[in-house]
Amino acid sequence: MSLVYIVLGLALLQYLYFGFAVGGARGRYGVKAPATAGHEVFERYFRVHMNTLELLVVLIPALPLFAWYISPRWAAGLGGVYLLGRFLYFFGYVKDPAKRSAGFGLSFVPIAVLLLGGIGGAIAALVKG
Q: What is the pTM of this model?
């Protein structure tokens, strides 16, 4: 399970990194708090940060759920794919929002597998008694 918790920690660090990037973009593009709009590139940074938060809400419980019922190593591996996908999403979206698709897919698909696998594993354990 240590690998799973390392991946969870890395996902949280990644989210903090994206938050610092938003702060830097806020200064670079002159978007004063509490505004969340005002410059297109700043808004891209902001959306990456918020989209990542939206996925973290599912990743954080899905990762240990899958690890418990299916496999900690597979859970950590899928979590690693998620992390890679989020970085691709970040750099692609900031450069050109049309280039975010691959990163989104590499972020979303692992989470869907983790969640569905974890739920399926829990149901199987329940049926076994």
A: 0.95
What is the set of domains in the chain, with CATH numbers?
A: 2-128 (1.20.120.550)
Tally the residues of the chain. Answer: 129
79-102: pLDDT as tens digits: 999 999 999 999 999 999 999 999
Question: DSSP alpha helices (H): ranges in the chain?
Answer: 2-28, 40-69, 72-95, 101-128
> Please, what sign has the CA dihedral across residues 118, 119, 121, 125?
positive
Q: How many angstroms separate the CA atoms of 44 and 6, rounded?
A: 28
As a whole number of angstroms, the distance between CA 94 and CA 46 comes to: 9
Largest CA distance in the chain: 59
